[in-house]
Write a structure and sequence with these properties.
The structure holds 2 protein chains of 2 kinds.
Chain A: E1 4-9, E2 14-21, E3 24-32, H1 44-66, E4 75-81, H2 85-102, E5 106-110, H3 111-117, E6 130-135, E7 140-147, E8 150-156, H4 162-172, H5 179-187, H6 209-225, H7 229-260, E9 264-268, H8 275-288, E10 291-293, H9 304-316
Parallel strand pairs in A: 1-4, 4-5, 6-9, 9-10
Antiparallel strand pairs in A: 1-2, 2-3, 6-7, 7-8
Helix pairs in contact in A: 1-2, 3-9, 4-5, 4-6, 4-7, 5-7, 7-8
Chain B: E1 4-9, E2 15-21, E3 24-31, H1 37-51, E4 61-65, H2 71-88, E5 92-95, H3 97-109, E6 116-123, E7 128-135, E8 140-148, E9 163-167, H4 169-178, E10 184-186, H5 196-204
Parallel strand pairs in B: 1-4, 4-5, 6-9, 9-10
Antiparallel strand pairs in B: 1-2, 2-3, 6-7, 7-8
Helix pairs in contact in B: 1-2
Classes of the chains: A alpha/beta, B alpha/beta.
Chain lengths: 333, 232
C-alpha cells in the first residue's frame, strides 16, 4: 500500500501544501501573500488572516494536482514551528481537524530541519554524513547531517540571520520587500567595488548585526556628500553587500569542512536561492573537491514539499504526535 | 434522519464544544483555562464524541463561532472546523457568538416578546464591548458593532422597547461598573450549547458558508503603523 502524506506549511507568509507518495513529491502548491509589500515586512496579523483564506484552496489544489483524494491519505505532516504564532496556528489547527476526521496520524515537523530535507527531494541526494548550510530570513546554521533525522548543529548566528541582513540592507536602500531577490537581480549588473568588514566571530558561529550597522554607516557617510549616492551606485552597492554576506557564509562553511573533514556539502533555506551564493558554492566545490548539493529554487523558499519529505522519514520511524500538540513559535532543536 | 451537528465556540477565554441532534442538545464539553484553545479544542471534541457515543464519521455539519472575539481563539476554532469539514466533505455553519448569547436569553425567558430588547455583549477590553441588538422574537435590530460603554448608552432603546435585558461577559462588566437601574441583567456564560438554535436554523435553511473562503468576523482592521524615522 502506498504511503501518501499531506504536508502543510504556514510558518510565515506563505501558505503551502504538498503531497508525497512513497518518498516522491507529487505536488507542491504555494500561495504567497502580497499584502505585506507596502509595509516593508511581514505583518503578523495580516499573514494570519491570509493563511485562513488560503489554507483550503491550497490543500485542495495540492490534492488535485497529485490525483489523490483525502481518503487515501496516510498521515498529515505540518510545521509546528519555529515561526509566527498566528500563522502557525492556522496550519496546525487545520491539520489537527483534518487528522481527527480522517483518523490518521499527525506528524510534527521542525521548519529548519525540513529546509535540510529539501536536499532529499531531487534525484541526486547527498550521502551521510554531509554538511548543510541552512540560511533563511530567520536562521543561519551549519549542521552535520548524520542521518535524515539525526542533525547536529555546529554553528549558528548569534544575532541576525543572513536573510535578515539582505532584507534590512534593502530596506536601508528603500528597495521593495522582500529585498533579497531584488538585491540579487541588481547585483548581477554591478561589481563588488565597496568593501565591508568581516565579523570576527570565533568558531563556526555567525554574526550579521555588525555588518548591518557598518552598511548603514557607509550609506550615511556617502549620502551626506552626495544625496544621490544610492541611486547612482545601486548595482555596485548591491553587488558589494551581497558579496560580503556570501563570503561570510562560505568562509564559515569552508572552516566547517576542514574541521569535520566532510566533503559532501549542501545548502538550504530561502537564501540558498541567491544566485551568487549558488555559483560561489559551485566554484568552492570545484576548487576544494566538494560534492555540492543545491535544491531547485521552489524548494529553497518556504514550501510544504520539504515538510512532506521530513514527514515521510518520521512516518517510517512511526514518530507521530497526538492531538494535544500546539504550535511552537520559538522551537529550539 | 439524524442531523448531528458539532458546535465549536472559541471566541473568548472559554473553549467549548457541543453536540446536537436536530434542535436537541446531546452533550457539551468546556475548558475554562485561558490560552488552552490550541491544545484543548480537538481533545475536547474527541472526549465529547466518545461520551456521546458518536463517531466523527456520522457528523452532518460543523458550526463554528464566527466572532467577534479573540483573534487567536477564532483562528483556532475556524481552522479546526475547516479541517474537519474539508476532510469529511461536510458543510460549515457560522454562528455569531452574540446571536448565540441572545438566543440563550430569549430561550430562558420564553416570551417571544417584541417589546423586549436583548443586548448580548462580549468584552473587548477597556470600556469597549462587541454587541448587537435583538428583539424577543429574535429579530436583529442592530447588527454587530463595537461600542464604548457609557452609563446611558442603551437608554434610547427604551423609546422603542418596554424592557432592556443585557447579557454575556461584556454585560457583566457593564453592570458591575454602572449599576444601571432601568436595565435588567441576565448572566449568560459563553457556551457552545448557545449555538444550538442558530446552528439548527442554518441547517434547515441550508445557510452554509463557503468552506474555502470563509473568514471569522474580525470586526476591526489591524492597527499597523509604519516607521517614519529617517536613516539619513
Amino acid at each position: 500500500m502506498s504511503i501518501n502524506i499531506l504536508a502543510i506549511e504556514s510558518s510565515c507568509d506563505d501558505t503551502s501544501a504538498a503531497i508525497l507518495q512513497n518518498g516522491r513529491i507529487l505536488s507542491n502548491v504555494t500561495a504567497s501573500q502580497t499584502v505585506h509589500e507596502k509595509y516593508g515586512g511581514v505583518v503578523p496579523e495580516l499573514a494570519s488572516r491570509a493563511h485562513m483564506a488560503n489554507i483550503v484552496p491550497t490543500v485542495e489544489l495540492a490534492l488535485k494536482k497529485a490525483g489523490i483524494s483525502v481518503d487515501q491519505l496516510s498521515a498529515v505532516a505540518f510545521t509546528r514551528g519555529p515561526g509566527l504564532l498566528g500563522s502557525l496556528i492556522v496550519g496546525v489547527s487545520f491539520a489537527k481537524g483534518l487528522a481527527l476526521r480522517l483518523d490518521i496520524p499527525l506528524i510534527e515537523v521542525h521548519h529548519m530541519q525540513a529546509h535540510i530535507h529539501a536536499l532529499f527531494i531531487p534525484e541526486r541526494k547527498p550521502s551521510f554524513p554531509f554538511l548543510s548550510l541552512t540560511v533563511s530570513g530567520g536562521h543561519t546554521q551549519i549542521s552535520i547531517v548524520h542521518g535524515p533525522l539525526d542533525i547536529e548543529i555546529i554553528g549558528r548566528t548569534r544575532d541576525d540571520a543572513a536573510g535578515e541582513a539582505f532584507d534590512k540592507a534593502g530596506k536601508m536602500m528603500q528597495l521593495p520587500y522582500p529585498a533579497g531577490p531584488v538585491i540579487d537581480r541588481l547585483a548581477s549588473k554591478g561589481k563588488p567595488i565597496f568593501t565591508f568588514p568581516e565579523p570576527n566571530i570565533p568558531g563556526l558561529d555567525f554574526s550579521f548585526s555588525g555588518l548591518k550597522t557598518a552598511f548603514l554607516r557607509f550609506l550615511q557617510h556617502h549620502v551626506k556628500n552626495n544625496p544621490d549616492f544610492i541611486q547612482e551606485n545601486l548595482p555596485d552597492i548591491c553587488a558589494s553587500i551581497q558579496e560580503r554576506i556570501v563570503s561570510i557564509l562560505l568562509n564559515k562553511l569552508r572552516l566547517a569542512a576542514v574541521q569535520t573533514g566532510i566533503k559532501e556539502i549542501g545548502i538550504a533555506g530561502g537564501v540558498s536561492g541567491n544566485s551568487r551564493l549558488r555559483t560561489a558554492l559551485q566554484e568552492h566545490g570545484q576548487s576544494h573537491n566538494w560534492n555540492v548539493y543545491i535544491p531547485p529554487l521552489e524548494y529553497c523558499t518556504d514550501n510544504a514539499a520539504m515538510i512532506a519529505m521530513c514527514g515521510y522519514f518520521k512516518f517510517k520511524n512511526k514518530q507521530f504526535t497526538n492531538q494535544t500538540v500546539t504550535p511552537e513559535a520559538r522551537w529550539i532543536q | 434522519m439524524p442531523e448531528l451537528i458539532l458546535n465549536i465556540e472559541t471566541s473568548t477565554d472559554v473553549c467549548a464544544v457541543s453536540l446536537q441532534d436536530g434542535a436537541d442538545f446531546i452533550g457539551e464539553r468546556v475548558a475554562n483555562e485561558p490560552m488552552s484553545h490550541t491544545r484543548m479544542l480537538t481533545v475536547l471534541i474527541e472526549a465529547l464524541l466518545k461520551e456521546c457515543d458518536v463517531s466523527i464519521r456520522n457528523l452532518s455539519a460543523v458550526a463554528v463561532s464566527a466572532g467577534p472575539g479573540s483573534y487567536t481563539g477564532l483562528r483556532v476554532g475556524v481552522s479546526t472546523a475547516k479541517g474537519i469539514c474539508y476532510a469529511g466533505g461536510l458543510p460549515l455553519i457560522a454562528v455569531s457568538t452574540l446571536r448565540g448569547i441572545a438566543d440563550k436569553m430569549i430561550e430562558r425567558e420564553g416570551k417571544n416578546d417584541r417589546r423586549t430588547y436583548y443586548v448580548p455583549m462580549l468584552d473587548a477590553r477597556r470600556m469597549e464591548v462587541y454587541t448587537a441588538l435583538y428583539d424577543g422574537a429574535g429579530r436583529e435590530i442592530h447588527p454587530i458593532h463595537a461600542l464604548i460603554l457609557e452609563e446611558k448608552v442603551f437608554l434610547s432603546y427604551l423609546e422603542e422597547a418596554d424592557r432592556i435585558v443585557v447579557g454575556g461577559p461584556g454585560a457583566d462588566k457593564f453592570v458591575a461598573h454602572f449599576k444601571p437601574s432601568t436595565i435588567e441583567h441576565m448572566e449568560v456564560p459563553v457556551r457552545a450549547s448557545n449555538m444550538i438554535p442558530a446552528a439548527w436554523r442554518a441547517c434547515l435553511n441550508k445557510d452554509f458558508v463557503d468552506l474555502a473562503y470563509f473568514e471569522p468576523h474580525y470586526l476591526k482592521s489591524p492597527n499597523i503603523t509604519i516607521s517614519k524615522k529617517s536613516l539619513f
